[in-house]
Amino acid sequence: MTAVTVGPLALPITPLLLLISVLMGLLVAALVGRKYKVSVTDPLLSILLGSLLFGRLVFVARFAGSYDSLWQMLDIRDRGFDLSASLLAAVCILCWLLWRRRQQRQALLAGVLTVTMLFGAFSSVIYVGRQQAMLPELTLQQLNGDSVNLAELGRGQLTVVNLWATWCPPCRREMPVLQQAEQQYPAVRFVLLNQREHPELVQQYLQQAGLAFQHVLLDRQGQLATQLGAHGLPVTLYFGADGQLLQSHMGELSAASLAQSLQQLGAGAE
Predict the structure, then answer these.
(1) Which SUPFAM superfamilies match (predicted)?
(2) N vs C: which end of the chain shows fewer Cβ within 10 Å?
């Protein structure tokens, strides 16, 4: 599952679970703080915001060549963060606060431990579920009408499957990023899987946008999204050479966030 559907909205699962963990941590910290007559809401938020800011800065520095403007660097919708840097910053800020605010130590530790343990448990559940998700045996159409087995297409090679539609603005914005990545990473197979649209409409859009991909498939019934719980668009799924789902990303990709995922999965650019 990549998202939780709330009415007409599809919310990315990982940020949502992080938000729930933080809220629970604030609640526990408030309860413990009441016992000691202290408040730690501001320090806990400082840890969260400081670690995210540092993680973003390190991420931008690592992938500075992937950005064309300062606005792209500031745009965090791609959720590009350096996890190691964020964790390091969180530990440093926590240690400083524990040293400076001795009366708040118990409440601070209670809040931080709650967030860490709860988000860790959520992440473990997601990881276990991902271990069981495989690239399914689906027969899908190409734009020329030929049929292709999706599992066979992805077998033996790291495969990136992008779920998109012509009516989806974030999908359209990230298409040039995917096209460039297909050229930069020849060892990776990119599959653009259109959702529930007529082939003539898809072909017309690609021609007008000047886009060309090796593998554009049509999922007229949304079968892959249904089987893997990939709600909302765009969604990008990363499958290993054995067909196992390794990573997923709901929402718009940037060149930097795509490069980070491919590097984590061992893909090298030419």
Answers:
(1) Thioredoxin-like (SSF52833)
(2) C
| Rounded Cα gap, residues 144 and 165, in angstroms | 18
Q: What is the pTM of this model?
A: 0.92
Q: How far apart are CA 130 and CA 141, in angstroms?
A: 26
Asked if 193 and 162 count as a contact pair (C-beta separation under 8 A), the reply is: yes
| Residue listed under structure tokens 């990315």 | 12
| The last residue of a domain, from among 90, 115, 131 | 131
CB-based contacts of 19-22 (< 8 A; 24+ apart in sequence): 20/118, 20/122, 21/114, 21/115, 21/118, 21/119, 21/122, 22/48, 22/115
Domain count, the chain: 2
Same domain, 174 and 234: yes
The pLDDT tens digits of the residues spanning 79-131 come to: 899 999 999 999 999 999 999 998 999 999 999 999 999 999 999 988 888 88
> How many C-beta atoms lie closer than 10 Å to residue 214's C-beta?
9
**Cα dihedral 99, 101, 105, 108 in deg (nearest 10):** -110
